[in-house]
Amino acid sequence: MAKTKTIYICQSCGTQHVKWQGKCTGCNEWNTLVEEFVDTRIKATPAVSQVGKGQPKLISEIESVAEKRLATPDGEMNRVLGGGIVDGSVILLGGEPGIGKSTLLLQLALQLHPLRVLYVSGEESEQQIKMRAQRLPINNENLYIAAETRLERIADFYRQIEPDLIVVDSIQTVYTEALESAPGSVSQVRETASKLIRLAKDAGVPIFLVGHITKEGTLAGPKVLEHMVDTVLTFEGDRHNNYRIVRTSKNRFGSTMEIGIYEMLGQGLREVQNPSEIFITESEEDFSGVTIAATLEGMRPLLVESQALVTPMTYGSPQRSATGFDLRRLNMLLAVLEKRCGFKMGVKDVFINMAGGIRIEDPAVDLSLICSVISSLHDIPIPKKYVFGAEVGLSGEVRAVNRLELRIAEAEKLGFTRFFCASSQASNLNKQFKEIEVVGTGKLEEVFRLVFGGE
Ligand code: TYD
Ligand code: MG
Predict the structure, then answer these.
(1) Which of 10, 341, 364, 403 has a beta carbon 3.0–4.6 Å from 24's, enabling a disulfide?
(2) CB-based contacts of 145: which residues, under 8 Å, 6+ apart?
(3) Where are the chain's structural domains?
(4) What is the overall mean pLDDT for the chain?
(5) Using CA atoms, how far apart are residues 207 and 205, in angstroms rounded to an integer?
(6) Strand duo 268-271 + 259-265: pairing
(7) Residue 100 beta carbon below 6 angstroms from any ligand 1 atom
(8) CB distance 135 to ligand 1 below 6 Å
(9) What are phi and psi of 131, to 5 degrees?
């Protein structure tokens, strides 16, 4: 019989405690300790396999080998991974339930035809996966489906099939018989993930792990999981909206700046190659409170519509709400408008929305957002052919942003005629662009005069 002992593990940071307590001493979180049984006969496994063996080497003596990458037919996935799936890498894909994680990976598995793919699911039956696969217009006769949750069986399947890629949907459902705790518990997730990572490294086979997300929006399971894997992707989007975005929060083999954009259709996910067009509404009428911002996601310029609604305050304190934008930054911009430009924002309710369900962190939307607010405040529409790309500083100054040429080129391509940016950047760009006028500004007042002053 296995000799077990009881320990208490923090579900947030993975710290072990010998007795239960309300607060974890590792991460100071409350109520995160959960009782687990561990088999004392099992030796703890190292988190990652022994990658290098033997003596330390001088860096100059180490041969440089370019990592082998599998470029997939999915251009968006290649982009976020930094050019394809690296051999032996382990990629964790997190996201809310129903957002499309299983669809994305099943579709990838089908697209990889004629490569051999092993898709292991602990969430759905083989029939359910088959039904889903039939909705997708592609076929891969070398795709193996296994509804299995035992880690030992998954390793057996690997040896039988020798696939080029493994998908495990999800890591929280996999368990090893070596541990007695329930699937999804910290020790199970850590142990099964570390075994799968070792399999990936030793056999050189890439593995995708699907990870659940907690109510707070972080990846469920121990934080160490994110440290163990090579790449962490999150699949996000608005459920009422068809657009889905893959972001990288960690990537050992590429940049974390790139995003991949998809559209969820009846027949699976479609790659969106020209994202600017989808985030801008085509309408004949002029609306107040709407402007176009030239943002950048990774190396890709993206024009998005920032919308503002400013109304007289209805309750005792002004309401502020921001969708797709940082609320603290909005408050800062409103304070700048109040203090530097004399607008009475303190008696207004302000609502901000980035159209299309996208979340923007690029500070280059500042100027566009401020103009949307003023446009809504005075109910004056801004000409539809204007684009804004600048940060706004605390003293109301218009600041430079990176890679401005890329942003202007995108706006020019889409037929915009005036681009507002910081004066420090504008000077020599006007000669470079023929179809679009680059307008440099130093202060917010100057922008308002040019945009609303009838010039
Ligand atoms: P799913 O991929 O199961 O999400 P997750 O694995 O993240 O929980 O769910 C995808 C959702 O998308 C589901 O509600 C059905 C829908 N869907 C489509 O709209 N089109 C399709 O082609 C498919 C396969 C699913
Ligand atoms: Mg799923």
Answers:
(1) 10
(2) 119, 121, 126, 129, 130
(3) 4-39, 70-273, 278-452
(4) 89
(5) 6
(6) antiparallel
(7) yes
(8) yes
(9) -60, -40
pTM assigned to the model: 0.78
Tell me the C-alpha distance between 145 and 204, whole Å: 21
Ligand 1 pocket test target in 210, 234, 264 with most atoms within 8 Å of CB? 264
CA atoms within 13 A on the CB side of 430: 12
Cα–Cα distance for residue pair 241/262, rounded to 1 Å:
11
- Which of 103, 129, 212, 240 for a ligand 1 pocket mutation test, highest count of atoms within 8 Å of Cβ? 103
Does residue 130's CB lie within 6 angstroms of at least one atom of ligand 1?
Answer: no
Q: Whose CA is nearest to atom 18 of ligand 1?
A: 266
pLDDT digits (tens, 9 = 90+) for 212-233: 887 666 666 667 788 899 999 9
Whether the CB of 266 sits within 6 Å of ligand 1: yes
Residue 136 CA, closest ligand 1 atom number: 22
CATH code at 278-452: 3.30.230.10
Residues lower than pLDDT 70 in the chain: 1-3, 39-53, 215-222, 454-455
> What is the DSSP annotation of 287-311?
-TTEEEEEEEETTEEEEEEEEEEEE
* CA 448 to centroid of ligand 1, rounded, Å: 45
